[in-house]
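Quick start: what a row looks like.
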Amino acid sequence: MLIFLWGADTWRSRKRLGQLRSRYLEIAPRAPHEKWWEGKEANLGELQEELAAPSLFQDRRFFVLRNVLSHTGLLPFLKARIAVLQADDPIVVVWEEEVSQTSPAFQFLASYAKLHEDFPLLEGKKLERELQRIAAARGASLSPKASVLLREELGSDLWRAEQEICKLSSFVLPSRIIEEDHVRKLISPSSEARAFDVLDAIAAKKTKEALRLLKSLELAGTVPLVFLSMLLSQFRNLLVLKELEMRGLTPASIAQKSGVHPFVLRKLSPALSSLTLVRLKEHYRHLLELERAMKIGATEGFRSFERFIFLLSGGRP
């Protein structure tokens, strides 16, 4: 039985995979047989041996192929064994995070998989409902304002949302109602999220906002060099995206060719539309100079970031 799970929301797709595995263990309790292959280096020869082996002692078999669509031999392998893959045994789950829906491998799996499900990153009300479900699973509930604040602070990162809601659920005993004030007191925005916010402020030349964000990072105990590495990483992404954009590629083609995670791509969109390639290269050069200075101790922490912000924003609040 061929099953295809795909999408950028790996928290929900992983949960679905867990449900499928639990169901498998219910129908094959005596002698379960499970195996996992991952990435473009996956050994398809080993998988072929498993598919060809008779199921003498196992009730059924459960195989997972994780992020294998980049494997050049995958599509011919699947086509040649479609009859085996469509039988009840074995269960073969193809689990992908990033996939082009126009690729031949995707089209084949979408056509022949007995079950195929998409897990895009959630936004807006759909995301808030998922946060409420996570809270309910821990015997708690989110007030409407707490739900909105969690969505704004954590974005579509349900892996972190689950951890934070678990922490909040323990804190609000015995009422079990998570209020906005609880979220503000117990959850600090991630450094990565603040890196995107700082980028947006730089692109919009909002000096005061950028400085406020830097101060919150400093008070939270963020290591300056760690935060700088995050900024450099996102500027590298912006340079790649801008060059593809200037070549006239469509948004879908840019997403596919850049290799940038869909969540990151969406977060970088405001800065991408505001900054020219020339400005991006200038900013990136300044950050590299700042990195060299920090590593040799020639500049001091967040004070150097402040000078950088004034330099790039032109000092306009």
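That is the whole record. The radius of gyration is 24 Å. The mean pLDDT is 82.
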